Amino acid sequence: MLILDRALDSVPPDLFRRFRLLWLSLLSVSLALALVVNALPIKRYIAQLGFNISSASDLGRFGQRLLEAPGNWYHASEADVPTLTLDIKFKHFSQLQQRARQIREFGINTQVGRSEWVPGKLKADGKKLRVQIRLQGIFSDHFATDKWSLAVKVRKGKSLYGMRRFGLKSPIARKLPNPVLWQEVYQLLDVPVLTRRFQPVNVALNGKRLGLMVIEERWAKELVESQGRPEGVFFKLLTMRFPEAKLADLQISPYSLSKLVESPTQSAVLALAQRTWESIRHGQLSPRQAFDPETTGAYLALVDFWGFYHPITGHNVRLYFDPLAARFEFVPYDYAEGRLGSLPTRRIVLTSWLLSDPVIFKNYKTSFRKLVRLDQQGTLTAQLRSVERTQLAYLHRQLPLLGTADLANNAPLLKRALVPPKLTATWAATTDPKPPAQTLTTRFKDWLGVRSVSSADLRNLWLRRNPFLVETNTVGNQLNFFSSSGTDVEIISASWHQDERPPLPLLREPLLIPATQSYQLDTEFNYTIPGTDGTVSGVGEIRGTVLVDGAARAYAVRPIRKVAPPVAVEPADTLQRNPFILLSGTGRVLTIPKGSWAVDGNILVPQGTDLVIEAGATIRFEPGAVLISRGVITIQGTAAEPVLLTARDSPGTWGGVALVRVPTRSVWSHANIEDTTGVQHQGWNLRGGTTFYRSDVRLDSCRFRKNLAEDALNIVHSNFEIYDLTITDAASDGLDADFSSGFLRGGQFLRIGAAGGGDAIDISGTVMTASDLRIHQIRDKALSAGEASRLEASRLTISHVGTGAVSKDGSELWLRDSTIHSVSMVALMAYVKKDTYGPAQLNATDVRVLSATRTALAQIGSTLAYNGRQIPPQELDTDRLYKTYMKSSRLN
């Protein structure tokens, strides 16, 4: 049948439809007869055409699909789906074949996430790439046909369709076109829920045509960067006891753990995320203090609106931890159409707990009401069916049995949805006795090497890389062992491995760590490891053998950094320690009046509370102290009476200011911020001396001076209006705007980048205009536009800089009516640093370059026009460029 299928694909277009109708008629009869004998090859072929038969109850639906298939194929589009060719050497492909056979035989992939990577070569989108490949997927349906689910990593910094890590799967395995429909709904809701990209491709593997498959974006920083988010950490939820699992039972496992612990920045984010999760398990944080209210409310509203339980079922839950907001967010992962009662969120402890929070529930109600309104207007169904037709047009070309999505919804349950859930004992650990161990099949236990395992603990064996974790203390050299399994863990052997040094034995006898239902960090299991400072993750690795439920296996685990658990932000302590801060009668506004004030500790402004700083106020902070607000900050300085935020001592430093997810714009006038080192609070680290994250702002006549953080002013995912800005004596960058939109009119940047590197204006994924600026004494670049930014700059005076203006990584920069002089390297540059973005453009008009080592330089592929003349492109080694004079200081 595969031969017949390929033959039909090669039929000339004028005869195609005639042959197609005849073939479909024959197919319908033959498949109906084949179902009588239930032949496995036939079932696999049916799956390749778009339908999985897993039980007798599916036969009715299959009959209906079979009747619809001729029409589906007849109306299929001849869409030009790109081709992807994958070549794997025979010996490596044989390894994959053996594993796929084992998974089909046993029915489950017990080594999920830990299969060996094999090298390969990939051709697609005009690129020839070296890649690494392994099998992907838990259950055998991922390997039921020739279209195996594969995980792919592109090597050497290259990318495909903007992705360096992706999955390659059958459209049936990923329930297409459902993912695209979910994404469309989030756009209709106008809520920035993170979603993954999908790209259809026709795949050939080692010369064998497999047909239509789909590229599915995996968990990497490109996923968040493409949607204007900071690089964070992705997690999966581990539990088999859904929906009744208590919060204390729930554990999370990070993706790409080995890469995380190699990065000091990312390991700190990982530690903060894990601490935040432990605070959730023990009721130390409210839902809105741990999860982003806006996206969480919208995600759960859509789950309830459609009544699907798969997206919130334990092992299907995927989370993103936002390092700037210090909040978790749901990331859609499973799109199956299974239904669980009327409102699935009310039947699961985790989601019920989230909806018990009034702020999250408010967002939930807003989204649910909007979905009902769109449904009643007919807009929702019409829009989704339109998107679905576009998707099915090419899917039906090879998958004629693929049906339409079930769009039945719970709009009639609006009144019930608007009633918040009632909770009891959500934080208590499960006290039920463990189920008795069940003996597995002979073939399974021989292959895995285990004698028995309980059904509740099975997932720990094939989802966890290790059944325990290790942390380093922030002070001292101790390692703390704790169980991450729901069962007892016995460490038979453990030794410390670091660099090329001889292994250091850690245990004189086996160590039993009891199953932990509550998190106990400071146990008696502490060991001093010579040569480690206890503050940097991944300084070494512990290897040995562990025994879990009779299964002995090797492990390798790297320590993660210990940080204090987050503490809820409450204003009471701040007011008690700083009586000069006045609280309004409504309790919703804090005011700092005119005068000179020494702050005791931090100023923490919670969501729902605003802060007003009156003209003439001078606020002095102790070393490391911070001002963090989730509410509006208004600074009412004037030219005669500016507001000053500075260090208590002179000379001295303090942390800085951060506004995080503030829904209303803040306005600052005549504010002077100086001596900042960057916000570091309870394991939460921000790179800016002053940071606006998802917090719109207007700055009038503000000054930022003597900043020692990576950015003096960091604006992320926000709208901004800036007038008369001055940034001086910054150790690294001046203004850094990421995934934002706004303008800067008037100001100056002086003495930027004293610590090495340092740009005056550095934007990424941002649309910005800048005019009437003086930029002087800049260690690196005066203007830097990257990651698909759009920058229009005019009437600039740029002098004594490393580089004048740079456009890179898919960005466009227009520079007009400006003067550049005293450039130590190149005045104008256009190039690619990150392969995921593509070539850049720079257009300089009426620009005077008076003195520079080189006037203009364009890398092959990028374009640069200087006063109407195109600069011939040339080869450029950007890796070497950023290892030399453009090297970042990375202060934090």
The amount of beta strand, in percent, is 25-35%
Largest sheet properties = 27 strands, mixed
In the predicted model, the low-confidence regions spanning at least 5 consecutive residues are 33-39, 430-468, 472-477, 516-539
| Number of H- or I-type helical stretches | 19
Q: Roughly what is the average pLDDT, rounded to an integer?
A: 81
Domain tally: 5
Mass-distribution shape: globular
* Total strand segments: 49
Could you walk me through the main structural features you see in this protein, from its secondary elements to its overall organization?
The structure is a single chain. The protein is an alpha/beta fold and 892 residues long. The protein has five domains: 2-74, no CATH class; 83-176 and 195-227, no CATH class; 442-561, Immunoglobulin-like, CATH 2.60.40; 569-709; 716-892, no CATH class. Helices cover 23% and strands 34% of the residues. It has 19 helices and 49 strands. The strands form six sheets. The protein has a 27-stranded mixed sheet that branches. The radius of gyration is 30 Å and the shape is globular. The N and C termini lie far apart (61 Å). The relative contact order is 0.06.
Give me the secondary-structure topology.
Blueprint: H1 2-9, H2 13-37, H3 40-48, H4 58-74, E1 83-87, H5 90-106, E2 118-124, E3 127-135, E4 150-154, E5 165-169, H6 178-189, E6 198-205, E7 208-217, H7 221-225, E8 233-238, E9 251-254, H8 257-262, H9 264-281, H10 287-290, H11 293-306, E10 318-322, E11 327-330, H12 349-355, H13 358-377, H14 379-395, H15 414-417, H16 442-448, H17 458-463, E12 468-472, E13 478-483, E14 489-497, E15 504-505, E16 511-513, E17 526-528, E18 541-548, E19 551-557, E20 560-561, H18 571-577, E21 582-583, E22 589-592, E23 595-598, E24 603-605, E25 610-613, E26 617-621, E27 626-629, E28 633-636, E29 643-647, E30 656-660, E31 666-669, E32 671-674, E33 680-681, E34 684-685, E35 688-693, E36 697-700, E37 703-705, E38 711-716, E39 719-730, E40 733-738, E41 741-752, E42 761-764, E43 767-786, E44 790-808, E45 812-831, E46 841-849, E47 852-858, E48 863-866, E49 869-870, H19 878-883
Parallel strand pairs: 1-6, 12-20, 22-25, 23-26, 24-27, 25-28, 26-29, 27-30, 28-31, 29-32, 30-35, 31-36, 32-37, 35-38, 36-39, 37-39, 38-40, 39-41, 40-42, 41-43, 42-43, 43-44, 44-45, 45-46, 45-47, 46-48
Antiparallel strand pairs: 1-2, 2-3, 3-4, 4-5, 5-7, 6-7, 8-9, 8-10, 10-11, 12-13, 13-17, 14-15, 14-16, 14-18, 18-19, 21-22, 33-34, 48-49
